[in-house]
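Duplicate of earlier report; N,N-dimethylformamidase beta subunit family domain-containing protein input re-posted below.
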Amino acid sequence: MRARRLGRSSPVLLALAAVLALIAACTAGGGGSAPAPPSSGPPSTSAPALSALPPGAVPGADWRITDPGPEHAVEGFADRTSVRPGEPVHLFVSTTAAHFTVTAFRMGDYPPTGAARVWVSPPQPGRRQADPVVQAPRNTVVAPWSPSLTLDTAGWPPGDYLLRLDAEGGARQFVPLTLATPDNTGRLVVVNAVTTWQAYNRWGGYSLYAARSGRFADRSRAVSFDRPYQAKDMQGAGDFLIFELPFVEFAEHSGLPLGYATDVDLHADPHLLDGARAVITLGHDEYWSTAMRAAATAARDRGVNLAFLGGNEIYRHIRFEDTALGPDRTEVDYKSFTEDPASRTDPLEATQQWRDPPDPRPESVLLGNFYQCNPAQADLVVADDRNWLLSGLVRNGDRLPGLVGDEYERVDLRVPTPRPIEVLFHSPLTCRGRPDFADATWYSVPSGAGVFSAGTQYWICGLDPGCRGGRSAPVVAAITTRLLTAFAGGPAGAVHPAEDNLGALGIDHP
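Output:
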């Protein structure tokens, strides 16, 4: 289950002045013996700036959709989830209008709207394309459409983009696109969780959860990127607006060196993380392939920091297949070992949950904490105010209202768990009638890497005073600023080694 909120320019930047004031107060007498937090400015790095906009771009342009118009009045998809700057992108658009335009917005630190308009197409001829096709036996929906136009991305800086389709008559929808950073040396790599967006995408009547019949048994066993994202709730933008955009805007304002990629890139490119300082996954990054997991683990073990800013990561095991439009365009997940034909031909690639037999590989091995339940709603409760991320900002027992949910994780020693590990927030809750805790964690490994796991899907929404952050947004922003700044400086676990506190919290046994 996932929280939903329609996209607008998130006011996360309003929290940043409060962050600086809060940090200053913590170090100016009121913070006791708390160590000074890291500077909020960017550290020295060899990573060059890559965010210069092309000539004619308009920072602060209005990108929002207030009235999308009738369903299917205009919709589309791209033939790539990501490209590098200068590579072409083919758009497939269906509309009931005679003409449409495409406007490309780079999302980020562009007050007052959080977007910059970088390109606008001339009017394009519109047409209603073919109905969706449901491919048996896996109930995979594809849009058998012809390409409508090709975008030239030369001069566009890397980053997260929304392509807005504007139909004659006023209907609008988005198509998301990532312009991947060509070289992530020295960068904090922000990973868009497009595999999770696609898993929940119900366009054409099917997702990995739903079917036209309403029966779970009739759901898709494989979903295709060769179709639009559904218009309902997220206006064609996948889950970018709620689970990712507030962090992108916040991180860009920090001035730290960022890289951009999708999790399909993490799967396909074994050199994606060469030289990177950190990998940041966002609010809901549930669907991981073997190659994705291996890449993140290998990066950690050579000193690359990891941050998991959600509450349900690395839960579903997927694999990819190609389509006529390109590689890795079909995402396979049977959610069952025995039902998946790969169980008989390539058992390690069968798509049961990562934690399930016959070869359990629980997410806790990489996250530190372990997914538990949904839906839950609770306050974040401070458990370790001496930790470097929290010191001087909060005290044990302090509550950050409403920041645990919908899905959450906790330390569970019945499964493999890295040690030493620190629980920073230990938050009591009830989920489906069962009392439990949500845990935000920090651990370090011999390579010097540090790993932070928020343990809640609401962490990123907590950066935004207008979403769930409220008065707590400056605290969440200050913690996140410390984390990112330390990550940009190199292996953060070497500077801030974890001090195990499970015994003090009474959770040092299964």
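The chain is about 15% helix and 30% strand.

Merging into the original ticket.
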